[in-house]
Amino acid sequence: QDKEEKDLLATISSVASNNTQRGILSYANKPKMMPGSAHGSKLVFSATKSTKAKTSIRYVETSVDKILDAPCVEQDFNINILDWGENNIIAVALANQIFLWNAETSAINELCSLEENTKVTSIKWIDDCNISFGDSRNRMHVWDASEQQSLRKMRGHAARVSSIAVGQGQVPWLLTCGSKSGEIHNYDVRKPNPFLSKFNVHTEEVSGLSWSPDGRLLASGGIDNVVGLWSNDIGTSFNEPMHKLEEHQAGVKAVQWCPWKPQLLATGGGAACKKMIIWNGNSGQKVLDVDTENQVSGIHWNERLREIVTCHGYPNNVLRLWKYPKFSHMIDFEGHDGRILCSSQSPCGKYVCSLGEDETLRLWKVFFSEETETKANRTGGSRSQTATALSMRF
């Protein structure tokens, strides 16, 4: 059984940066360290599993690892315009353009530009080569990113497509999309006529979607404060989910399943709620709720460390780390000057990137444990201890 983290031995160091020149996904300035920090930006925790067990040390690097400029980011909390793929490439949408940043090589490429006055409103990698995205003209797109070539466009939504989830388990070809109309559409991207079915319970925008790791359940979060739990019977259209969860007092954007307990779901509420709720997806019963004291825009689990991080908007604009299963608050990652709009986790599980209203994309060593890491680990490129100040722009 996990114990609460204890013995706070160092102070938190804030991250500050003043960007004087702006380039798309260019490196921003190196963050300044707060004076008087005895251990730099590391926070040290010790944890013991029993009185006889050897004490292990967990170093938490709270300073930002990298900062990239993201000018013209859409100031809209309900869309999902950031995704870190299994290919270790971060895709981010800025207005009508999509850019790809390779975390291993730091290479930047523009994937595409949509028509003038059209905005990308959601984005999701399907696999290492193919990427999907929705736009403000109610369309879904599938592109071959390696060839920078459009494969297909799918129409049928009555409003912009603001959230996307890719099938898990036995259905990796499944694309599930939520729109501002409240409808959820399922597509088989292998077929000439890809539309499969429609799920309909939300009365407002669907701002969060996530398939469980075993592919059995879909979670949907809406601006109507509702969480829907759906079975994987994707060949049938439904107007009612398996479970309709209405505990949140604000819109729900953050929905994320536990990777080691696939029936466990975490959801996060907006500014009028501020709660993270843990659910049993099979029964629809609430397991517990946690007051995060902030608007929740993202949730990410880490199986190896048994921790969870929540990403936040108002009032603090931080990433907040919690210890599972007691959900004791460990530490905050500070630096964004404005709401965190979107976030995504690295394929190795150790890093989280966050996209903010302050027009920066920040990479954090949230789940990095120095006692077990080696330089050879695949961590999204060669990482420095603090944010790197380089000049690289289009």
UniProtKB/TrEMBL annotation:
Stretches the record annotates as Disordered: 375-394
One of the record's GO molecular function terms: ubiquitin ligase activator activity
One Pfam family matching this protein: WD40_CDC20-Fz
InterPro entries, per database record: Cdc20/Fizzy, WD40/YVTN_repeat-like_dom_sf, WD40_CDC20-Fz, WD40_repeat_dom_sf, WD40_rpt
Span of domain CDC20/Fizzy WD40: 68-364
Alphabetical keyword list: Cell cycle, Cell division, Mitosis, Repeat, WD repeat
Keyword set includes Repeat: yes
Protein family according to the UniProt entry: Belongs to the WD repeat CDC20/Fizzy family.
PANTHER family hit by this protein: CELL DIVISION CYCLE 20 CDC20 FIZZY -RELATED, FI02843P
Name assigned to this protein: CDC20/Fizzy WD40 domain-containing protein
